[in-house]
Amino acid sequence: MNWQAVVSIYRFEMARFFRTLAQSFISPVLSTSLYFVVFGTAIGSRIAEVEGVSYGAFIVPGLIMLSVMTQALSNASFGIYFPKFIGTIFELLSAPVNFLEIVLGYVGAAATKALFIGVVILATSALFVDLSIAHPLAMILFLVLTCISFSLFGFIIGIWAKNFEQLQLIPLLVVTPLVFLGGAFYSIAMLPPVWQIITKFNPVVYLISGFRWSFFGVADVPIVTSLLAIGGFTALCLGAIWWIFKTGWRIRQ
Amino acid sequence: MAMVNIRDLRKVYEGGFEALKGVSLDIEEGEILALLGPNGAGKTTLISTICGITLPSSGRIEVGGHDVVDDYRQARNLIGLVPQEINLEPFEKVLNTVRFSRGLFGKPRDDAFVEQVLRKLSLWEKRDSRVMELSGGMKRRVLIAKALSHEPRVLFLDEPTAGVDVELRRDMWETVEELKRDGVTIILTTHYIEEAEEIADRIGVINGGEILLVEEKEALMARMGQKELHVELTDALDSVPESLSSYDLKLSEDGQTLIYTFDAKADRTGIGRLMAAMPEAGLKVCDVNTTQSSLEDIFVGLVHGQDKTEEEQVA
């Protein structure tokens, strides 16, 4: 293993993040505050409790997941797409590094950024609502796995994308709707029966449900299913990346 | 054992374009090889395939005895590449982007060495500037600094002087000379013939994905170079005297100089006979000099010769 290279890529990517630290920090704080004003105060005041949890607190895990997933995706996809776009990828391809080291560097940095934003949102939320975390270890596990798996997914999108439109396509058309419909702002039990069944096909439901369980001990789906879902998704992304590595798809002619 | 050893290298791109048609080439340790060829000849593809940016379709490449596909780590550890295009992360600082290259190649951080490289390329003052704030020439210096930052033993310079000013050109050749003294093998591609003539030990000519020849620069020029004998006359002539017609002489426009083309390597150059025949034809000689044809003439001759052969084959 060329650990020096992994660290170099990681630091180079993190430098991009620190250059825009104010932006990286302020934007999630602001959007989280807005969500609390709109959903927590304006709408939430008319919703008493969901599954024994105040509505303001109920949406916190969903809010964190929403930001973490989209941030991990966009950071990781942009991180590897940008060198392709400006041509600096030549250096990665001609360096004594293997694909695993490249993935570790880029995905590690993207996941770190997403984790940072997740923690910032959690801290911001604590200013608005009383929060208690029932299963802190499970909470950290879900959060970290989500950061990693969505960064892996973003990396794949970044490798696949041939232009900026494609880079935005999957996050906008697939992931954002799935996350919004994944129970970030409501409990599945609040939906009509037909939609409850349809929702079960949305993988994000399992992630948000599991994460919420780690906070409040209540979940839409069994916690084991959630763990299998996040584990399965991570494995799927790793498999895809392994295949890209084997074939050199869209990287090396 | 050659530093770079290429055997029957073919590269066919996805669209079916055959960029390299069975290239074999040995590059010796410590030499400067200039690869000369017109645009689209396959120079960049050859370099990209050695460096791992593209994969060979068939054939084998070894660098320092390491196969570039199977032992890519050992092979690439030895290689530095300065690409033709200015590909740099625009928002990063010069120093960081050079440090990054060193780390990427697995070398431990060495600020003193990086400083030395930056100073040599007159970049030290600009170390905290963002790449996007630099001029084109400075950006090219950064690319060179990145390639040198990991102490390569084989350095590829792909069209290093395209759009470069005189000062940078001079600095660059100085750097190249210095590297050569340290025993670094240098391969540069160019379509400027003067460049090859200036610094290369050996010259390879590539066209249409094939190496047409590789030779010592002097040998190449001596073997292929025709020489011209310029004979300056005291009195101007209107035409070449009848008695000298067998020498195929050309007369300069002012009628003052007779030009005789000969092969310096031939057993008989014919110079002696010509010089003897001149007074007999009533000519008074006041000065004589010879000139050697440049690489450019050789190169044009080779590439045209190949194009003609191909046309004939097609016809």
TrEMBL record, chain A:
PANTHER family, alphabetized: INNER MEMBRANE TRANSPORT PERMEASE YADH-RELATED (PTHR43332), TRANSPORT PERMEASE PROTEIN (PTHR43332:SF1)
InterPro entries listed in its UniProt record: ABC-2_transport_permease (IPR052522), ABC2_TM (IPR013525), ABC2_TM_bact-type (IPR047817), ABC_2_transport (IPR000412)
Membrane topology, from the record: Multi-pass membrane protein
Protein name: Transport permease protein
Species name: Pelagimonas phthalicica
Annotated TM spans: 21-43, 55-73, 140-161, 167-189, 225-245
Main location: membrane
Positions of the ABC transmembrane type-2 domain: 19-248
GO cellular component: ATP-binding cassette (ABC) transporter complex
Protein family (similarity comment): Belongs to the ABC-2 integral membrane protein family.
A GO MF term: ABC-type transporter activity
Alphabetized NCBIfam families for the sequence: PRK15066.1
Keyword line: Cell membrane, Membrane, Transmembrane, Transmembrane helix, Transport
Intracellular or extracellular location(s): Cell inner membrane; Membrane
Top-level lineage group: Bacteria
UniProtKB/TrEMBL annotation, chain B:
One MF term in the entry's GO annotations: ATP binding
Coiled-coil residues: none
Keyword annotations from UniProtKB, A to Z: ATP-binding, Hydrolase, Nucleotide-binding, Transport
Domain ABC transporter: residue ranges: 4-233
Pfam families per UniProt: ABC_tran
CDD domains associated with the record: ABC_DR_subfamily_A
Class in the EC hierarchy, top level: hydrolase
Domain of life assignment: Bacteria
UniProt keyword Lyase present: no
EC number: 3.6.3.-
Keyword Manganese: no
Transmembrane segments: none
Protein name (database record): Daunorubicin/doxorubicin resistance ATP-binding protein DrrA
High-level lineage: Bacteria, Pseudomonadati, Pseudomonadota, Alphaproteobacteria, Rhodobacterales
Encoding gene, per UniProt annotation: drrA_2
